[in-house]
C-alpha cells in the first residue's frame, strides 16, 4: 500500500513496503504511512539533530525483521525480575512471546497483556496512537506502520498493581541488521497506582535499530513510577519516544538509565493537562568507546501548580559523546510552577564530548524554575582524600565515579532493580578503571 | 620517625614557592605543634608529607623511618602509617563512612601484614572507636562528610584516625571551626590515641587547642620557614604577643614574608 514518496527516501522509507498487509491497526497504518511519506529522515541541518552525524547509520543495510535471520532468544530467564514473576511481558525483537511472559499476579482491575489481543478494547481504541505527538518525526509513524504486538497496561479506577510490571524487550543476534518497533500503551484511571520496569536488552553485539514508542495517560490522582533501562547491543541504534500526560493531582515519575547502544536518541515528553501535578524525568547515562547518547526532553507546564524534577547525570569516557537538550515550557497562565532541572556531566577522558543545552521557555511570571548544567572531571582533592585513606588512585576514581552515578538511582522503588542498577554502575566504573590501567 | 630536610616546595601549576627550606625532626612518642599566621606554609607542609599532587618538591627531602618517601603515592604513604586529618574534609556523597573505613582499614591492614576484618568483625571493631569521639552509630551509614556540620567533619577525621591507627598523624587545623565542647572531645580523642609508638604533628592557628593537648615541641612557621622552635611556653608567648616580633625577626634575616 505504498504511496508515492514526497521526500528523499531513506532506509526507513524503503522498508515501509514490508508493512503487514493484513491484521489489526489498519487506520493507524494508513495514517502512519501518509506521515512517513511526508517526513524526511533527520539530518544535521535540522536544528534538533545538529550534534549528530547520522550518515554512518544510514549506510547500514537494514532489512525487514522477517528477512534478517534473527536467532532465538536463549538464557533470558536471568533478566526476569523476582518481584514480577507473575507480572511480566516479554517481547523478542518487538514481538510478543507468550512462553516467557507471565501475567495474572496483579489483582483486580489491572489488565496487562499483548496489545494485539485487545484490538476491540475501548481504552485501546480511545488512546492508542492518539497520544503520540512528535513533530516532523519519521520514527513514530514507522513504528505505527510496522508494529503488531505491544504492551498494554490498564488500571481501572482505584486499582493498585500488587507487583511491579516488567516489560522485557529482548533483541537477539541476527544475520542482517533489522528494525524493531516495540510499542506500549499505559492508561492509569483515577486513583490507581502502578510501577513499570521497561527493560531493553541486546543479547549480542549485532546491528539493529529499535524504535520504542510508549504512550502514557495518568488520570486524576493516579501514580505511575516508570523505570526505563536501555542496555542494547553496543552496535544498536535506539530511538525512543515515550510520552506521558498528567491529569489533575496525578504523579508520573520516570527514570531512564542509558547504558547500551552505539547511538541512543531518547525524547521523553511530559504534558500537564490540569493543575496540581507532580512529575519527574530523571536520567542516568553511562557511556564509553564510540557511544553517543542524546536526550532531547520536554516538560510542558500548561496549568498552574505543578512540581517537576529533572536530574540528568552523565558519565562520559573514551570517545563517547553525550547530548542533552532539556526543554521546559511554562505557558502563559501556568502560575506557581516549581520546576527543577539539573544536568551534571562527568568527563573521564580527554576525548569525550558533552553538549548540553537547558532550554527554558517561560511565559508566566509567578514561577520558580531552577536549572543548571555542569561539566567536570573528578576533583583532584577528592581523589587525594581517598588516596590518603589508603585507596589506590584507580580505586579512588572508581569509587568517586560510582558515587556520582549512584544519586540518580536512589529513587528506585523495586529492590531488585535498585540492586541491578548498582551492579550496572559498578560494572561500568570497574571496566573503565581497568581500561585506564592497561592503556 | 619523620625527618624533613631543607624542604623547598612549589605549587605545581604556577611554580609559586611555598616552602623555602624547612627542617623538622619528629621522634616516636612526641607531639609537635606547628603554628604560624595564614599563608605561612603550615598546611602545605602537612599536605606534602601526605603526598598531595598539587605540590612539587624542588629541593630537600622527607624521610620517614629513615627512608625518602618523595616517590611514594599518597596511598602508599597511608599504608606505611602516615595519616592526614584534612583542614577541609572532602564530601563523598554515595559512599558511606563504613564502606570507606572498611576499605581503608583492610587495605592498610593488608599492607602491614595484619588480618583483614570481615564486615561483622569490622562493625564490632569500630563501635568502640565511635565512643572515643562521641559519635552516634547511625553516622556510620551516612555518606562520608556529606551534609555534615563543620564540627562533625572534624570529629569524623579523628574517628578515621582512631580506626586506621596511624604511626604518624598530621592534623591540619583540626581545631578550627569547633566549639569548646567539640574541641574537648577532639582533643581527648587525640590524647587517648597517642602513645609511645606514634607521633602527632598538630597544625594550628591558636594556642587554645594546646590547653588540652600538651605538645613536646612548638614551632613557628613564617614565610615558608620554621623561624622559631621551643617548648610549650612558646605557644603562650605567641598567644600574648602575636607573630609580629617573629616576623620582624624573619625580616632582619633578609627573608621575604
Main structural class of chain A: alpha/beta
Number of strands of chain B: 12
Instruction: Write down the Rg of chain A.
Output: 21 Å
Q: In CATH's first tier, which class of chain B applies?
A: Alpha Beta
User: Helix proportion of residues of chain B, in percent?
Assistant: 25-40%
Tally of DSSP helical segments of chain A: 8
In words, what does this structure look like?
The complex is a heterodimer of chains A (439) and B (257). Chain A has helices at residues 11-15, 26-38, 55-58, 122-127, 139-146, 380-388, 393-406, 415-438, and strands spanning 62-63, 87-92, 95-103, 110-114, 151-155, 165-171, 177-180, 183-188, 193-202, 208-210, 213-218, 223-231, 237-246, 251-258, 263-266, 269-272, 277-287, 292-301, 306-316, 321-330, 337-347, 353-362, 367-376. Chain A is α/β, with parallel strands linked by helices. Chain A has two domains: 11-267, no CATH class; 382-439, no CATH class. In chain A, strands 1, 4, 5, 7, 8, 10, 11, 13, 15, 16, 18, 20 and 22 form a 13-stranded mixed sheet that branches. In chain A, a hairpin with a 2-residue loop joins strand 2 and strand 3. Chain A is globular and about 65 Å long. Chain A starts with 10 loop residues before the first helix and ends with a helix. The model of chain A is unreliable at 434-439 (pLDDT under 50). With 257 residues, chain B is of the alpha/beta class. Chain B has one domain: Rossmann fold. Chain B is 36% helix and 28% strand. Chain B has eight helices and twelve strands. Chain B has helices at 42-50, 74-80, 97-111, 119-132, 150-164, 180-193, 233-241, 244-252, and strands at residues 2-11, 17-26, 31-35, 55-64, 67-68, 82-85, 92-96, 143-144, 168-172, 199-204, 217-222, 225-230. Chain B has a six-stranded mixed sheet, sandwiched between helices. In chain B, strand 11 and strand 12 form a beta hairpin. In chain B, helix 5 (150-164) runs parallel beside helix 6 (180-193). Chain B starts with a strand and ends in a 5-residue tail after the last helix.
Amino acid at each position: 500500500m505504498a504511496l508515492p514518496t514526497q521526500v528523499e527516501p531513506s532506509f526507513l522509507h524503503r522498508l515501509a513496503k514490508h508493512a503487514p498487509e493484513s491484521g489489526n491497526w489498519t487506520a493507524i497504518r494508513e495514517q502512519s504511512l501518509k506521515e512517513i511519506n511526508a517526513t524526511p529522515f533527520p539530518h544535521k541541518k535540522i536544528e534538533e539533530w545538529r550534534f549528530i552525524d547520522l550518515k554512518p547509520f544510514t549506510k547500514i543495510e537494514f532489512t525487514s525483521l522477517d528477512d534478517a535471520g534473527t536467532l532465538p532468544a536463549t538464557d533470558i530467564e536471568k533478566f526476569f525480575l523476582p518481584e514480577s514473576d507473575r507480572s511480566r511481558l516479554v517481547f523478542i525483537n518487538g514481538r510478543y512471546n507468550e512462553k516467557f511472559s507471565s501475567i495474572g499476579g496483579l489483582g483486580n482491575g489491572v489488565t496487562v497483556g499483548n496489545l494485539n489481543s485487545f484490538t476491540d478494547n475501548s481504552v485501546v481504541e480511545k488512546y492508542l496512537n492518539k497520544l503520540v505527538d512528535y513533530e516532523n518525526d519519521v520514527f513514530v509513524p514507522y513504528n505505527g506502520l510496522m508494529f503488531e504486538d505491544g504492551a498494554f497496561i490498564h488500571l481501572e479506577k482505584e486499582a493498585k498493581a500488587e507487583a511491579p510490571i516488567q516489560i522485557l524487550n529482548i533483541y537477539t543476534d541476527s544475520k542482517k541488521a533489522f528494525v524493531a518497533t516495540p510499542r506500549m500503551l499505559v492508561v492509569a484511571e483515577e486513583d490507581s497506582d502502578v510501577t513499570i520496569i521497561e527493560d531493553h536488552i541486546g543479547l549480542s553485539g549485532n546491528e539493529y535499530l529499535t524504535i520504542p514508542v510508549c504512550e502514557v495517560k495518568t488520570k486524576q490522582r493516579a501514580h505511575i513510577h516508570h523505570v526505563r533501562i536501555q542496555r542494547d547491543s553496543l552496535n544498536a541504534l535506539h530511538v525512543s519516544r515515550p510520552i506521558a500526560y498528567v491529569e489533575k493531582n496525578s504523579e508520573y515519575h520516570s527514570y531512564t538509565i542509558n547504558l547500551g547502544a552505539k547511538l541512543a536518541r531518547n525524547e521523553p515528553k511530559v504534558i500537564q493537562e490540569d493543575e496540581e501535578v507532580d512529575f519527574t524525568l530523571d536520567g542516568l547515562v553511562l557511556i564509553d568507546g564510540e557511544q553517543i547518547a542524546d536526550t532531547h526532553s520536554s516538560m510542558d507546564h500548561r496549568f498552574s501548580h505543578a512540581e517537576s524534577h529533572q536530574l540528568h547525570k552523565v558519565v562520559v569516557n573514551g570517545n563517547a559523546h553525550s547530548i542533552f537538550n532539556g526543554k521546559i515550557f511554562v505557558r502563559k497562565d501556568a502560575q506557581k510552577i516549581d520546576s527543577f532541572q539539573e544536568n551534571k556531566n562527568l568527563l573521564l577522558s580527554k576525548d569525550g564530548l558533552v553538549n548540553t543545552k537547558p532550554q527554558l521557555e517561560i511565559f508566566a511570571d509567578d514561577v520558580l524554575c531552577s536549572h543548571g548544567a555542569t561539566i567536570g572531571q573528578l576533583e583532584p582533592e577528592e581523589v587525594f582524600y581517598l588516596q590518603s585513606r589508603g585507596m589506590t588512585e584507580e580505586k579512588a576514581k572508581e569509587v568517586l565515579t560510582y558515587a556520582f552515578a549512584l544519586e540518580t538511582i536512589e529513587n528506585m522503588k523495586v529492590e531488585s532493580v535498585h540492586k541491578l542498577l548498582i551492579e550496572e554502575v559498578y560494572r561500568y566504573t570497574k571496566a573503565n578503571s581497568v581500561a585506564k590501567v592497561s592503556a | 620517625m619523620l625527618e624533613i630536610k631543607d624542604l623547598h616546595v612549589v605549587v605545581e601549576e604556577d611554580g609559586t614557592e611555598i616552602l623555602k627550606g624547612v627542617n623538622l625532626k619528629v621522634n616516636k612518642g612526641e607531639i609537635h605543634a606547628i603554628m604560624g599566621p595564614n599563608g605561612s606554609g603550615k598546611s602545605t607542609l602537612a599536605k606534602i608529607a601526605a603526598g598531595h599532587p598539587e605540590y612539587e618538591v624542588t629541593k630537600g627531602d622527607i624521610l620517614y623511618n629513615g627512608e625518602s618517601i618523595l616517590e611514594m603515592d599518597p596511598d602508599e604513604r597511608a599504608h606505611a602509617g602516615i595519616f592526614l586529618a584534612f583542614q577541609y574534609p572532602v564530601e563523598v556523597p554515595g559512599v558511606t563512612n563504613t564502606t570507606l573505613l572498611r576499605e581503608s582499614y583492610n587495605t592498610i591492614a593488608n599492607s602491614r601484614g595484619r588480618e583483614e576484618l570481615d564486615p561483622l568483625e569490622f562493625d564490632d571493631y569500630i563501635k568502640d572507636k565511635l565512643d572515643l569521639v562521641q559519635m552516634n552509630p547511625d553516622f556510620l551509614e551516612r555518606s562520608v562528610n556529606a551534609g555534615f556540620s563543620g564540627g562533625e567533619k572534624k570529629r569524623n577525621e579523628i574517628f578515621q584516625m582512631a580506626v586506621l591507627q596511624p604511626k604518624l598523624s598530621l592534623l591540619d587545623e583540626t581545631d578550627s571551626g569547633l566549639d569548646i565542647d567539640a574541641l574537648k572531645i577532639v582533643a581527648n580523642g587525640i590524647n587517648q590515641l597517642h602513645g609511645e609508638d606514634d607521633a602527632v604533628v598538630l597544625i594550628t592557628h591558636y594556642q587554645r587547642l594546646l590547653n588540652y593537648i600538651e605538645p613536646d615541641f612548638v614551632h613557628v612557621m613564617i614565610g615558608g620557614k620554621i623561624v622559631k622552635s621551643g617548648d610549650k611556653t612558646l605557644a603562650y608567648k605567641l598567644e600574648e604577643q602575636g607573630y609580629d616580633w617573629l616576623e620582624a625577626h624573619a625580616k632582619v634575616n633578609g627573608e621575604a614574608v
